[in-house]
Amino acid sequence: MTASPLILHAPVDGVVVPLGEVPDPVFAAGVLGEGIALDPLAECLYAPCDGEVVQCARTRHAVTLKTEAGVELLLHLGLDSVELNGEGIELLVAVGDRVTTGDPLCRFDADRVARQASSLITPLVVTAANGWRVSAMGHAGGVRVARGEPLLQLTEEARDIAASADRDAAPSTATRRITLALRSGLHARPAARLRDIARRHAVSMTIAHGKATAETDSISALLNLGLSEGDELNLTASGERAEEALKAAVALLTIAEADDHAAPCQATAPSGPLGEGELAGLVASGGLAVGPLVTYRPPLPQVPRDGEGEAVEWPRLQQALSQAAEALEQAEAEAAQRGRHGEAEIFGTHRAWLEDPALGDAALTSVRAGRSAGQAWREALDAEAGRLAESGNPLLAGRIADLRDLQQRVMTLLAEPGACEDAAVPEGAIVVADELTPSQFVALAERRPAGLCLARSGTTAHVAILARARGIPCLVSMGAVERACSERAILDGERGRLEVSPSAARLVEVNAAIETRERQAQEERRAAHKPAFTLDGRRVEVCANVGSSAEAELAAQAGADGIGLLRSEFLYLERASAPGEDDQHREYQASIHALGGKPVIVRTLDIGADKQLPYLPLPDVANPALGVRGVRLWQCLPELMETQLRALLRVEPLESLRIMLPMVSEVAELVEVRRRLDSVARRLGLAERPQLGVMVEVPSAALCAASLAEEADFLSIGTNDLTQYTLAMDREDPDLAARADVLHPAVLRLIKATVEGSAGRCPVGVCGAAAGDPLASLVLVALGVDELSVEPARVPAVKAAIRRLDIGRLAAELPALLSLADAAAVRERLSAWLTTERDPTTTTIERLPS
Ligand code: PEP
Ligand code: MG
C-alpha cells in the first residue's frame, strides 16, 4: 500500500522561479536537491508542511524541516543572505519545535535582505527525499502564487523504485566530509585533477566549505574557496558513478601530496646582510649565473575594444578557445614525452582553466555589452586576476601569472595582424621581469637565458617549478628589480642575491666557479653510463628509484645500473579501485623493457601509515605507523597481493625482475611470501623464480640481518623508515625534519649491523633518500653497502662522488664517527674530513676533537 502524496505549500506570497533559473549555481544545478523557488512578496515565511525543525542557521536565514516520513526540506531565505549575519531576520522557531503547515517560521525585513543579499529569491528544496519522488504542480516561472497554495507534490511510489534501484546500483548522490590534506591547499593542479575525476566518472561534483560552495567544473571557483591544509569540506557527487568518483576525489584530497615540485627549503631564504649593489630575492631555483641584465616586458596583444555583436564575437571567441586548448594539449603531450612531467601538468591545468564556465560566462557578458571577443576575454581574466590578488592568499596570488598566460594566449589568437611582437632577449642574459607566465617562461627558456630575476612570484609559482626543472637559476619576490641595469651582473642562487655591479675580481671568481661546475656536470653525465669504482677499486652499483615506467626510461637515460626501487604503490594512487593484473603487468613490463636487461627491483605494495588508499581501508588503529602495513598486508589483503605477484611473474625476461618486500620485521614474513610466490609461479607453469629480497626499514630487521640474509636473495636498506623507527621521529613531522637525520650514529650502527649480519651471504643496497645525500652516501659505501639507489637525475653525480672516494681512508674514520653524540656532530666531522681529503693543505681536521 502506498501512502498518500505529501504536498508542499507555498511558504509565502510570491512569484515562482524554477529552481534551474535561480541565480546561484548550487541551487540551480540541484546540488542540494530538487525543489522550487519564490521571489517573496511578503515578509514572513510559513511552514510548507507538517514536520520538526531539525536545523536553524546561526545566521537565521535558513530552516530545515523533517517530515514524519523522513523527508527533509530546506527553506532558504534569499541568496547569499548569510552575509547579513542574521540582521533583519527574526526566527520564530527553534530546533526541536514541531510545526504544522502554515505555522510562521521566520519574519524578515524584505528591503534590507533585498539590499544586502544578492537576491531575495527563496528556494524551497527537498534535501533528503528518502525515496519520495518530487514533482512540481504545474506552476510556470513568473506566475504569482499565494501563501498556502500547493507548490510541490511528493509521491511515495518512487520509494519502491528507489529502493530496488538502491539494491542494484550505487546511489546517484553521495557525500563525504573530509579534511583537506594538501600541504599547499587546493591550488590549481589538484583543482584540475578534481575536475578530471568528475569528468571521467560523468558526475557533477561540488565542494562546500562553510557557507561557500564551488562546482569542480570551475577551476576559478575552486581556487576562490581559498582552501588550506586542514580545512573541513563536504564533497558531493551526483551521477551513476558518484561513489566511485568520490573515492577517487577523497584519495586526491586527503593524502598529503608528495610535492615533487616543492621548493628546496634550505635554499629559499636569502641569507646574510646585503652587500653594496646587491638585491635580495627568494631562491626559486639555485645555481650561479653571470650575464647582462635584460628587462623583459611582454606586451599584451592589441585587440579591438568594440565588437561586431554577439552573433560574430561569441563564435570567434569559442574558436580561439578551442585553438588554444589544442595548442595546450599538444604542449602537454610534448612535455610528457620529454619527461618534463611538471611542465606537462601545468599545461594540463591551463587547459582545464580554459574551459572554466565562470570565465566563459564573464566573457559572454562582456560580448553582450558590445566588446570584441579579444577584449571580452581580456576583461574576464582581468576581473578574475583581481579577485585572486584581493584574496590575500599568496598561493592564489601566485596563480595570477597562470591567468595572464591564458589571457595572452587567447588574445594572441584574436589579435590584429602584426600586433604581437616579442621583446628581444639575447642568449646568456640574466632576464629581469615583473612576473612571467609559464608560456612566456617556456618561450624565453628557448633563448637560453643564464638566469631569471622576478619582481613578483613565489617559490611555489609554476614559473619556479619550471625553472627548477630546467636548471635555470631563478630568484623571485625581488621587489623593484626591473629598474636594475647592468652590463654584467651575477645571480647567486646560493645566497639569494643579484649582484648588480660586481667587481672584476668577483666576476672572475664566479665565472671560474660556473665553468668548473659545468665541466664537472658534463663529465659526470658522460661517464654516467660506465660502472662506478672507488679509488681503491670497489664497484658500487648506482641504481634509480622510480614510480613509473616513464621514470624508468629517464633512469636508463641517466645511466642507472638498474632500478633499485620501483615504488609500485604509485600505480595504486589516485584511482577509485586497485589496478587490475593486466594494467599492472603492462607497467612492470614497460619498466623492464626500458632498462634493457639491467635489473629492476619492484617493491610490492607498501601502504599503511603515511601512505593510504581510500578504497582499501586498513584497520583503524591508534598508531598506524606501527600497525598493519607493508608486507603485513598479506595477512588482510591476500588476494590483492597475489594479483600483484601474478602481474609481476608474467614479465619477460623474468631474470631481470627482482621482487622486494617492504616493512619486513622478521624472517617468517619472507618465508611465507616465498611460499606463496612459489605456488603462484607453479600455477603459471613457470620453471624460473625471480630473486626475492627484503627491505631493512625497522630496527629488528637490521639487528636480525643474519637470519634474513639466510633466506633473502638481497637486502635493501630503507633509510627513510629506518631513521624514523630508530629515532622515534615521525618522518612527516616538519618540526623534527632537521633532527630525523640518517647520519645519527644510532642509525649508522644499525646499517653497520645489517652489512655485517649479511656477511656476504647476499648483497646489501640502500634505497632510502640517504643514498643520494652527498655526505651520507659516502658513509654508506664505507660501511660496506654494494648498491645505492637514488633519484634518476642524481645518478651521474653519485657515480662521480664514488669515483672520488677512497673507501679505505673513510672506513678508518668510521669508529670515530659512530662514537659521536648526534647527527650534527657526524655531519660536521665528515664535512671537515672531506675538505681535508680534497685539499690536504687545510688543517680543519686537526682542529676537531678526535
Ligand atoms: C624507505 O623507507 O627508506 C623507503 C625507501 O621506502 P619509502 O620511502 O617508500 O617508505
Ligand atoms: Mg619505507
UniProtKB/TrEMBL annotation:
Family annotation (Gene3D superfamilies): Glucose Permease (Domain IIA) (2.70.70.10), HPr-like (3.30.1340.10), Phosphoenolpyruvate-binding domains (3.20.20.60), Phosphohistidine domain (3.50.30.10), PtsI, HPr-binding domain (1.10.274.10)
Subcellular localization, as worded in the UniProt entry: Cytoplasm
Similarity-based family: Belongs to the PEP-utilizing enzyme family.
PTS EIIA type-1 domain sequence ranges: 24-128
Origin species: Billgrantia bachuensis
Cofactor: Mg(2+)
Protein's name according to its UniProt entry: phosphoenolpyruvate--protein phosphotransferase
EC number: 2.7.3.9
